[in-house]
Input
Amino acid sequence: MNLHALLQRRQADGKPIRVGLIGAGKFGSMYLSQARRTAGIRLTTVADLSPARAREALARVGWTEAELHDVRFVESGAELIAGDRVDIVIDATGSPAAGIAHVLACCRHGKHVVMVNVEADALAGPLLARRAREAGIVYSLAYGDQPALICELCDWCRTAGFEVVAAGKGTKYLPAYHESTPETVWPHYGFSPERVAAGDFNAQMFNSFLDGTKSAIEMAAVANATGLVPAPSGLAFPPCGVDDLPRVLRPQDEGGALHHAGQVEVISSLERDGRPVFRDLRWGVYVTFRAGAEQGEDYVRRCFGEYGFPTDPSGRYSAMYKPTHAIGLELGISVASVGLRGEPTGAATGWRGDVVATAKRALRAGETLDGEGGYTVYGRLAPAADSLALGALPLGLAHGVTLKRAVAAHAPVRWDDVAFDATDATVRFRREMEAAFAGAKASG
Output
């Protein structure tokens, strides 16, 4: 709780934390707007496929020409990592292949890494985190993104002596959204053709949030970092407002919607008939918890009531939530935690959740999959052990590969269903993770 004071001390001592950013897109730009205002932090290098565009991004969020003079711009993340100007690397690329390569380079060069790139974490985070620990560097999820905020709520809960029953986030969800494509996405957001034409909108990126893929990716990261386990059927997206969290997010045998206690789940801001949920949590994160079933439980229940905690009818279950998240504007919390304390704001401790490529429609042999947010597949959350037993193709590798056989609508795509390059570095790393965490280890 004293990160700011520690940063001020680093500033006064003339030893700011030196930061390098890979990828100056939306998330990266939001961080850049705050980095220049933060004592004890010095952005030294930015890597982007278009250095000129990255420089423009800094200028757009307030960097002066004098400030820009001290920043080096390069095209290659590898060059940024290998340089001597950086202590902490932020990967904000969104590319699983790039993210894996960047983390392994950080291991070789002794640079801590903050992973905005949750796509890479969902594909191979457990092995990446292990490699980082072995190399003596910190591997961290990115604060401001929902997975790290959920990890923080779980840590608060457990540190206070409560049992985490469920944790997750809110989103806008209806079952039909799984079939959404970049061509059909905009009406679901209420965007007119004129608004889309006038803006800089990425249809595939927006669609990945709508079709359930991004929720699966983020909850896989949360499961792997917190020890919570997905339900066998994946995410159920129950409609739920903040006042109903303790009632809905409790086990089914006690009247709730959960398969089991200790589960990740995403709640919908829409009822199944399309009506808005009252006091929804579309932009926020939550945790539900309970007083232990042991001596003293009645006392804790009374305290819940005395201090205005929302509870289920039994008074045993309660909840805490954060209504919004500020994306890259909050990323400095991760940078400070890693740079000052050597602590991640969330990192995989085991392999518990995986994201399975699932057909949006009946797919024909010979079709090429187009990955996250596209026309062919969406990501479904599954327990890692189930994904491994199924031989499921991870969503992060379901791009640019050709189907060898037809796959039914909403059926999982398997490794055996596609022609893939077994020598590809990303494929090899994922296969290595599957082998390393196979069997009993797959659950943590």
The two ends are 30 Å apart (CA to CA).
